[in-house]
Each structure stands twice: as C-alpha cells, then as structure tokens.
Amino acid sequence: MSYKSGKNTRNIAWSEIDQLQQSDLGFILHMGKQRQYVSKSCLNDEVIAFMVEQHAVSKMN
Question: How far apart are CA 38 and CA 42, in angstroms?
Fold first, then answer.
C-alpha cells in the first residue's frame, strides 16, 4: 500500500498492518504501536473493498 501526503510518500506492506480498523469516515491502520489514519473521502468503493480484501489475504498467509 502506498499513499502520498504533501511531499512525503509512504509505502506500507500489507504484512506490516496488524489490524485494519474501519469506521464510517475512514480506516485506522495498526502497525505495532503506530497508527495511521486514511480518510474514506479520498477512496472510492472499489478501493475500500480492495483494502479490506488485501488485509484479509495478508493475515491468512
């Protein structure tokens, strides 16, 4: 997973995400003690479904 915030680009492997917590407004990605929020306002339904699916697949491996 990769996202850009201003001039910074962050890459996160699905395997690094311990928990994908979904709220009405976005996702909270739990990576160890770190948390990263991703707003749903910048995501379409297809991307939201993809994120949920990829996280589930990464936890099965």
Answer: 8
Size (the chain), residues: 61
Domain coordinates in residue numbering, the chain: 2-60
Q: Measured in Å, how far apart are the chain's first and last C-alpha atoms?
A: 17
Task: Note whether 58 and 15 are within 8 A (CB).
Answer: yes
Instruction: Give per-residue pLDDT as tens, 22-60.
Output: 999 999 999 999 999 999 999 999 999 999 999 999 888
> Is 0.90 topped by the overall pTM?
no
Rounded CA separation 48/34 (Å): 21
